[in-house]
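Worked example (supplementary).
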Amino acid sequence: MRNMIDKVLSKGERLGMDDIEVYCAKNLTTKIRIGSNAVTSAFTIVDEGIGVRVIKDGGLGFAAVSLTSEDELDKVLDDAVTAAKARKLGFSYEFPSLEKSTEVLGTYDSKLVSLPEEDKVGLANRMLESSIAFDPRVVDNAGDVTFIEYETVIANASGQQVSDRGTKLSAALTATAKADGVTGEDAGRRQCRSLNGFNPEAVGREAAESAVERLKARKLEAGTYDLIVDPPTVTEMFYWLLRYANPAYADTYYPTLKNKVGTKILNETVTIYDDPTYPGGYDSASIDDEGVKASRTTIFENGIFKNMIYDSVSAARKCVNGTGNALRTGLWFVINFSLFPGKNYNYEPYPEFSNMVMKLGDWSRDEIIEDTKKGVISQCFHYSRVSQHIRGDFTSILGRWKLYTVENGEVTGTTVKCRLNDNIFRMFQGVDAVGNNPLVDFGVTPTVRVKDANITAF
Amino acid sequence: MMKDIMEYCLDYAQILGASYVDVRGEHYYNEFISVVNAGVDKSFTVRKNGVGVRALVDGAWGFSSLNHPTKESVKTTVENAVSQAKMISRSIKEPVTLAPVKVYKDKVATPRKLDVEDVAFDDKIKNTLEWEQGFKVSDEVKETMLNYTAIKFDRTFMSSEGADIEFNNSVLWLEMKTSATRGGKRGAFALYHGGSGGYDFLTEGDPSELTMDVGNKAVSLIDAEYAPSMKDTTLVFDPYYQAILTHEITGHPSEADRVLGREAASAGSAWWAGKIGEHIGSEYLNIYDDPTLPGTCGYFPYDDEGVKAKTKVLAKEGILIDHMHSRETASIFNVEPNAGMRAMTFEYVPLIRMSNTFIGGGDWKPEEIIEDTKKGVYVSTRKDNSIDDMRYNWTISAQEGWMIEDGELTTHLKDVTVNGIAPKLFTSIDAVGNDLSIKPLIGCGKGMQMLYTGNGGPTMRGVADIVGG
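After joint prediction of all chains, the assembly is encoded as:
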């Protein structure tokens, strides 16, 4: 990898670039799949390559190539230069300075890296067996466990170089229970950065236990309910809200919060940070994908909109300071994007959130439930969308997994799937209770309660 | 050189104990140009080459892929695939069996007059800038975005059964988005145009006319009204809306791995599992998946298991007939494989995916369907969609629509959000147009892989709800 960097930098220098940046990523991804009650297959992707950005005569160009030959290195530079000629920025821009930073605690697990393939299969099997053993009514299981190792290096023509590395593990298991002609399906899930964070038996048991509970699921009447959202599902709400705080979206089709910094938008209970320095955070990293040292940015504070996020280009365009939020994955339904869970060398950086972190409140989860007269507890939003971007109309399937009814302060049972039809801004304005129970998973969030959510039955 | 490496993979995997092995070698090229508000916002190229090795050992699958392989480096890739399969085989309950298929040796290149790589990148940037000018039909057009994407690949499939199939193709599309404002009011419109072929796919038409249409649409939507909530409403869907509707509620639940519940933890399952031979809709409902249609985004001559492409009849006159299959699921269902396996690139394991999925045409003229509708809503072009994991309950918003009153289009609507139940819609279909067309659908995600498909249908009438703002 480092050899490739040196070659590209020296070729770039010979070609007379004003500046050049090389981003190298190396990924090893292993997925173990479960289906029809058995571990069915495994696959491994080894992916390594470079993305090159050049600045030449006020133009910025980018090209990428997988681990490659000398000829293709020439080609990638030619392509980047051609792209730079076409894209004159029209504003002053230089690549961010690369400053060494310390690895974020809990983002790299050497035990996961050295875990033999056989043990990876073994973990998937343990998760599955735990579900099967839980109850004879559990008749089927499907899911997967994904192991990711990555290393990134960023270097520039000034001789600066920074690097990062990380590990990730994600697991999901859906169990199907059957009894008396009724079928119940539910899941256990976990996303973490180390083997210590993953208890396969617990995920399997969670899937099976919930599936058996779902055998007694009742239909929910359409109406208005207080919606108690447990972590990590709260992050799904953030994901859609925070598009409005991302210039890549706000400048095009989510403009509602443009020029609204300093305005109260959400309930005062809501404070949200973007924090890539959070120990063990699923998207924590010591640097962003342009090599900028990670730091925390406050997005909303007591309901007041405080900051947009920026990568270096979007910040330069707006003449503001960057926030270290460059990510190389494309932009969902704006620019062709990647579902690859590792690090992508084949995309230019775009502004994007890292860990979405919510400031804790002082309610315990039990207190929130006890204080709720008519509500539902959701631990899964499925296929959420903002269906009207300006207003923020929001829809999501509740109850693909884990949906419970609350009546007069007590959890009274599970319920079948239904649809949330509400508005993302109204929902955050309606957050009247924030829990003190953070979960580090996708984002770092506690339980929250949204007053008077509009739910329609299937 | 690539073929030598692939042959080595086949031989070595069998020496290591694979009863079946296939290898996909690929040279992959992707280019992208984004013009925003008359300036180039992004432009890049990506080049990859490599192999993906899939091995069946003792009834279990292993798969491993590698960039830029050499005979030395690919050795480990083969060993990984085989050793993974061996590990899995110790815990499987039912060994994988593959439905037999005819083995082919073939070379297919999508016809093209102008190869994507034979046009200078500079020229493509100039063209994209020029086409983007079309949006500016008035000063009310404020934000414009034209994204050009081309993917070109040279893919070879070889198997231990003797298959040797080369497929050279390129898929191109334009993504057109714009918004217009007047006073405090706003209209926005977006459209895709794309298919397979050479760069001439774009230049033989005039994309400036398309961007002009999109600009005009955005302006016209400034004054459009938001739809009110309407329960159990008669809706007439246009072919652009049909593209996303058929994709989501007929295509995905037809994937046999979903039907078997194997995707339950990720992509989801299918509400019509176990209903082959049963009525799922009215006699007007015919569903197909057809990779043999040249020029479409879902075109291929052989799937990524080397199975020759064919038209799949998934539902006929309202009766569920078949699903999309891999050789493995075809064996489970005891049917013939029907070329349902696709992978995004060599790096990924093939999965059961759509090619061109659509609802079949009928004999109504589109205008006859509107004239025959006393009260309802005409729903046009997709916006956003939210579908439940069994593809039973769906919400798909449209960019525009019109009220239908006494057989005429009246009030112009924007952001029409439709919520429906799949079997309820299917059984309510009572008119199907003769204007079937296949549209590009970009960004279908499954198992870490984003793919492009063709989807569509004719103008069609059925019943669902409108969710007002």
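Two points are worth noting when inspecting this output. The domain at 2-214 of chain A is CATH 3.30.2290.10 (PmbA/TldD fold). The mean pLDDT of chain A is 94.
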